[in-house]
Specification:
The complex is a heterodimer of chains A (364) and B (413). With 364 residues, chain A is mainly alpha-helical. Chain A has 15 helices and 5 strands. Chain B is of the alpha/beta class and 413 residues long. In chain B, strands 5-6-7-3-8-9 form a 6-stranded mixed β-sheet, with helices on both faces. The chains are: A mainly alpha (364), B alpha/beta (413).
Chain lengths: 364, 413
């Protein structure tokens, strides 16, 4: 019997002619206990967060409402901005800065939407506890929700931007790689979990070290250039193989590569077979020349003795390699590792958050 | 009923930094040697608050009462010890905390109520009640930034009380709004009490505490110094204030207002001696219960033969109001005392006073009414009134109800 059931049962019984009549008093000492102590109990914390999911929704809704309150176009603004960005990139890279990357604007945007989620969530979350000092000091609720709500808001913007992206894909008549589409889902889950972990961690640290929110902005700027969004992973890889592996340590690189692979996908310009290389096709090593099965092509070939796979999507114009076209299961493996690592980080972030949360009200 | 709140050896330590280094540069520069003092805001407090009771936390500013309340609310975690709270809890530490000025009253109700732990369904159900209680029907879709401070606070209160908490924590917020709204708040509190909800109140308003609470915890320097019914606890609290020099003893003020007594030329013909007070249960507790009889015994010594002596007795409240004052002839119709030692007993059949500490002044006068000797104060006694009435005198009254129909809660029609 929950507290609310109790309350309503009391209400019903007061319907006598005189509300001052004695009311059957429920024994409230038998209600489920809630313990406040410095001992960290991670499971009740997670349970509390789960129970506050409606609060999470209200907070996200509040953020969206407040942001565009009083503006005529409202949420449309959140789509207009990326649309203009996309258009500008399209024009600039098509006519002025010929990058050799076909549809560069789409390539850029397929990685950028994922990055934007990460960026806005972390910027928002790092100051979320401090910005909400008023309620943190006066109301008891799982405070992680404040950081998570920022991730939620950013995810909403991600979806708005995805609408823009879809419109542009339709406009350019550019088909994403449907077979890699499920990757998008896994990558998005990874992205949200990874972002949440950092969001919770930095929101807590920022209470004690107010530099963090500024540091984050600088850090994210540097990080952005460390992730192949504007340039391609293969430029890195061809520059130095070890550097490519270093890149793959960064969860954001893996997530963004997956986004690019699914959305930007195969490049439809390969019209001739590439050089003869030993390659693995359906698990067998084949050494004869590649016959292109489709115009869009995916050629995994052996790298380092059949352990790692890599394939090229070759653009027609320059034959530069665009994407790290690992086979499907390799993407899944990488995303799986990122997922597990992100979960561990999320758990650790919650432990740290829980340890220092007890003094938030005093520190603010 | 069992305990709704168990406070188990709760301590809360704060660090008072002499200089607060919150930036990275300062932290690095001062790494390892940030000067701070440790300060125990709450120190080993244990208490149980029974379900359905209304308990006050009373203490000076900085005594740790608000910190303790925040620990109960779960806003602060105790450094050691724990608090167990049973049932849904709502803390009213600041009304309308977390209101978004840009959002409408409606949106804010949903946001605030869910912050207090309500589900969307519950808010839907109670929405009308909240709006009605806040008296904001026509403004509910206006942005909160256009609300007056009164409307703001009313909305905050309405949301908080309508969360139907099992445990309600209230910090200094009952004294908001105009008088009518205050009345409404208080009647809501009474309704909660009838429904067996547990309430913990922190307030500076001793009078409000007295009228609302069934028990008060007095907190001083982070420690629980007394748990008692309101009358006793408030007295202990006042003594504490006097002891620590926070409040000048009231007698200092009284001296200026004490009327000049006309002294008799035959001074010390009668000398007043020891005064003792007797009442029921005085060995167990330092107060008499309201309505109980009181006996004051006064020893006196007559030095020389004296005619027609009368004794004056007056009872003065803490504020200096004279509750009772009378002068009586020692021997009805007049008479002569010969030298020696005597005693009179002033027997009050009943002391129908409310909570408070009362001072008894005694004097003896000669035939012309001039004072021979005076004891001021002669003695003091404390009264404990078990009810909630506020004021000076316990006026007994009956509550006669004439209602169209009436049935007991447990009977079914």
């Amino acid at each position: 019997m929950s507290a609310n059931d109790l309350a309503t049962s009391v209400d019903e019984e007061v319907e006598g002619p005189l509300s001052a009549a004695p009311v059957a008093i429920p024994d409230r000492s038998q209600l489920p206990p809630r313990v406040v102590s410095s001992r960290l109990r991670i499971l009740p914390r997670i349970r509390d967060i789960w129970r506050s999911r409606e609060l999470f929704v209200f907070l996200v809704r509040k953020d969206l409402k407040v942001k565009y309150k009083g503006s005529v176009l409202g949420l449309l603004w959140s789509m207009l901005n990326p649309a203009v960005t996309l258009l500008v990139y399209y024009v600039v890279f098509k006519y002025f800065l010929k990058s050799g990357t076909p549809n560069f604007a789409l390539y850029l945007f397929s990685g950028l939407i994922a990055w934007n989620l990460f960026l806005t969530a972390l910027i928002g979350a790092s100051s979320s506890i401090v910005a909400n000092a008023g309620i943190v000091k006066k109301v008891s609720f799982p405070r992680e929700i404040l950081a998570l709500a920022q991730v939620g808001t950013s995810t909403m913007f991600f979806f708005f931007q995805s609408i823009v992206l879809v419109l542009f894909l339709i406009g350019f008549q550019y088909a994403p790689d449907w077979s890699y589409m499920p990757l998008l889902l896994f990558a998005l889950v990874d992205l949200i979990v990874f972002t949440s972990a950092l969001a919770i961690f930095f929101s807590a640290i920022n209470v004690y070290l107010r530099d963090i929110e500024h540091l984050i902005a600088v850090l994210l700027n540097a990080w952005f250039w460390g992730v192949p969004i504007i340039y391609s992973f293969n430029q890195v890889y061809h520059h130095a193989k070890w550097l490519g592996y270093v890149y793959l340590v960064d969860p954001m690189t893996i997530i963004i590569l997956s986004f690019q692979r699914a959305i930007y996908g195969r490049v439809a310009f390969v019209t001739y077979p590439i050089q003869q290389v030993p390659y693995v096709l359906h698990g067998k090593i084949v050494t004869h020349a590649v016959t292109v099965r489709t115009v869009t092509q995916q050629i995994p070939y052996v790298l380092h003795g059949a352990i790692a796979y890599r394939a090229h999507v070759v653009s027609a114009a320059t034959r530069t390699v665009q994407l790290a076209d690992y086979p499907y299961h390799f993407y899944l493996l990488l995303l799986g590792i990122v997922f597990v690592a992100s979960l561990v980080m999320l758990f650790a972030a919650m432990v740290i958050f829980g340890r220092i949360e007890g003094n938030f009200a005093e520190e603010l | 009923m069992g305990a709704a709140i168990e406070i188990q050896n709760v301590s809360k330590r704060f660090r008072l930094y002499h200089e607060k280094y919150t930036s990275l540069k300062e932290r690095v520069l001062h790494a390892g040697h940030v000067p701070y003092e440790e300060y125990w805001a709450v120190n080993g407090v244990s208490a149980e608050i029974e379900a359905g009771k209304t308990v006050g936390l009373l203490g000076r500013n900085g005594s740790g009462k608000s910190t303790l309340l925040k620990c109960i609310a779960g806003i602060l975690q105790p450094t050691s010890g724990q608090v167990v709270v049973r049932g849904q809890l709502a803390a009213m530490l600041e009304l309308g905390a977390g209101f978004q000025p840009e959002l409408s009253g409606r949106d804010n109700i949903y946001l605030n109520a869910s912050l207090l732990g309500l589900s969307r369904r519950d808010i839907d159900k109670r929405f009308d009640a909240i709006v009605a209680f806040a008296e904001l029907d026509q403004f509910i879709d206006n942005q909160v930034k256009y609300y007056s401070s009164g409307m703001y606070v009313r909305l905050g209160f309405a949301v908080a009380v309508n969360t139907e908490p099992d445990v309600l924590l209230v910090d200094e917020v009952l004294a908001v709004g105009d008088e009518r709204f205050q009345q409404k708040c208080l009647s809501k509190v009474e309704e909660f009490q009838r429904e067996g909800r547990t309430i913990v109140v922190v307030s500076h308003s001793v009078e409000m505490m007295r009228s609302v609470c069934s028990e008060i915890l007095v907190i001083e320097r982070g420690e629980l110094v007394k748990t008692a019914p309101p009358g006793q606890a408030i007295r202990a609290f006042r003594d504490l204030l006097i002891d620590t020099g926070m409040v000048p003893p009231e007698s200092v003020e009284e001296e200026e207002t004490t009327p000049v007594v006309m002294l008799s030329p035959v001074r010390r013909a009668v000398e007043l001696g020891k005064v003792t007070v007797e009442y029921r249960g005085m060995d167990e507790h330092p107060y008499l219960e309201s309505g109980d009889p009181l006996t004051i015994r006064l020893e006196f010594e007559v030095a020389a033969e004296i005619e027609d002596v009368s004794f004056g007795v007056s009872i003065v409240s803490e504020r200096g109001d004279i509750v009772f004052s009378e002068v009586r002839h020692a021997i009805y119709g007049g008479g002569i005392f010969s030298p020696g030692v005597g005693e009179i007993a002033l027997v009050f059949d009943a002391i129908p006073l409310l909570d408070g500490r009362f001072t008894v002044n005694l004097d003896v006068r000669d035939s012309r009414g001039l004072v021979i000797d005076v004891l001021e104060p002669a003695c003091q006694f404390e009264v404990m009134y078990p009810g909630r009435a506020v004021g000076l005198i316990a006026l007994g009254f009956n509550f006669d109800l004439t209602a169209p129909s009436w049935r007991n809660q447990h009977e079914h029609p």
